[in-house]
Amino acid sequence: MGCSGGLRAVRSALLALLLGFSAPPWLQAEKLGDGCGHMVVYQDSGTLASKNYPGTYPNYTVCEKKIQIPQGKRLIFKIGDLDIESEKCESNYLTILSSSTIHGPYCGNMMPVPKEIILDTNEAIIRFESGSHVSGRGFLLSYASSDHPDLITCLERANHHVKNEYSRYCPAGCRDIAGDISGNIVEGYRDTSLLCKSAIHSGVVADELGGQINVIQQKGVSRYKGILANGILSQDGSLSDKRFVFTSNGCNKSLSLEDGFIPNSHITASSSWEETSEIGESVQWSPDKAWLQVQGISWASNHSSHREWLEIDLGEKKRITGIRTTGSTMLKFNFYVKTFIMNYKNNNSKWRTYKGILSNEEKVFQGNSNYGDLVRNNFIPPIVARYVRIIPQTWHQRIALKVEMIGCRITQANNSFTHPMWQRPSQSTGVAVGKEDRTITEPIPSEDTSLGERQKKVLMAHLMHKTQVVGNRSSSPLSDISQQNLPSAIIMKRRLHKSWI
Ligand SMILES: *[C@@H]1O[C@H](CO)[C@@H](O)[C@H](O)[C@H]1NC(C)=O
Ligand SMILES: *[C@@H]1O[C@H](CO)[C@@H](O)[C@H](O)[C@H]1NC(C)=O
Ligand SMILES: *[C@@H]1O[C@H](CO)[C@@H](O)[C@H](O)[C@H]1NC(C)=O
Ligand SMILES: *[C@@H]1O[C@H](CO)[C@@H](O)[C@H](O)[C@H]1NC(C)=O
Ligand SMILES: *[C@@H]1O[C@H](CO)[C@@H](O)[C@H](O)[C@H]1NC(C)=O
Predict the structure, then answer these.
(1) Considering 214, 246, 278, which residue would you say is the last residue of a domain?
(2) DSSP states of 201-245 as a string?
(3) Boundaries of domain holding 462
(4) pTM (predicted TM-score)
(5) Is 275 in the pocket of ligand 3 (CB under 6 A)?
(6) Are 458 and 323 part of one and the same domain?
(7) What CATH number has the domain bearing residue 301?
(8) Which ligand is closest to the CA of 249, given by its number?
(9) Are residues 131 and 169 in the same domain?
(10) Pair (225, 339) in one structural domain
(11) Which end of the chain lies in a sparser environment, N or C, as judged by fewer CB atoms within 10 Å?
(12) Nearest atom (ligand 1) to Cα of 132
């Protein structure tokens, strides 16, 4: 039933599309959206999952996505999870198509799906299709170039590993994958934590880029404290046998403690709040209260606007790898900064806005979510500057901050920054993170659909597009492939291709 139901759906959807009819309600999901879920597609690596993953993927949906890495490299895929309800992969399946081969269709949840697929090419199309079904998580996979044979998926946990020290390659896009991590960079992470998400939490890799992680396994501790860092909230965790930490390049000192406290004249603000306390005393929420190491109230601005700032002069040009912030730290004053951006400059230069690693827009950091907890954000790549400004974008009740900058002196770290994670990618143009290619959701008709000339043209355009997408070659990517076991839609495509092009 799944198969013929799927075919019928495909046919009527196509007709509705071509003839401009509105689709019946049960088809609208397919028409509007698509079967793609979380997708981070960067030119060196990425992560793809079906819609709602790890929840159940929708009925009658298609996700088709082209993956391309730089020319001359070979694509590696790692399948982290595959749970597609189907016995014969007829209308629910996943395939990976390159110009020379087709991998799959894959379905089920126990079948021998390869954990790793290495292609001869630098391009492929991932195609996921569903018919009518009741359960199934769909799929989650990662890709990278063959320069990174130690690629893992976002679902890999440290307790899968037995060695005490190892190195792996995390793909881009693991931050928003469901799954717990417990612990923090100082005490380490519980071994049940997801490796790549922990690496983003600890500031070792950027979600937008992924990268190499070096893991050291250690004896567990009795408790793991959860904190918010780099937009990820880790959980509190209980005793475990093992925990893990990431090796660090050591550029993680407190820049306000390095040479004793920075003089108060080195911290200034756009305005500060003067409060009259219950007993009639004047209380200054001045910028010198903003040092994290100083107990008591924080800095607070007199005004609430996006033009307020807190400025720190580090005395000399430093390499700044992170920032830790809290709010007022006072139960009575529920003030904190929810998001902020960073500006930086050197002696005589203009203020510049810190941008994300790939994006051309200012990077908005996720700050505090209450008045008291410490939140950390890392700068990848680091900021190299003498002056920095924290510019609050959103806040709760009133702008209030205590801060600590983390980093190191430049001379001290001269040779420590050859690690790729500190370098901008050589070609940062090209594929934008989070942006999707055109996703094809229109179904393909079966042979016996009778179509007029206009409709044929529409379909031809569609197929031409596909041919370009698949291989940059004039021949059909599917022409050498046996029809056996092929999902119906692919067979139909091939027939159409032959008869019309
Ligand atoms: C798909 O449709 C069937 C029949 O209408 C329904 O029983 C099932 O719950 C649907 N599955 C999903 C994932 O929505
Ligand atoms: C800072 O780096 C040193 C040297 O690599 C390391 O031993 C230490 O644990 C790091 N501290 C933090 C808080 O990451
Ligand atoms: C705060 O702002 C108010 C109104 O804009 C102003 O009257 C007051 O002098 C300001 N206080 C400080 C300490 O700047
Ligand atoms: C910046 O100014 C400081 C003191 O004002 C000086 O010591 C330093 O050399 C200057 N740096 C540059 C790069 O000009
Ligand atoms: C950095 O450079 C200085 C002087 O050029 C040198 O003395 C020092 O050993 C270098 N540090 C490292 C970590 O290589």
Answers:
(1) 246
(2) HHTSSBTTTBEEEEEEEEE--SEE---EETTEEPBPEE--SEEEE
(3) 453-500
(4) 0.77
(5) no
(6) no
(7) 2.60.120.260
(8) 2
(9) no
(10) no
(11) N
(12) 1
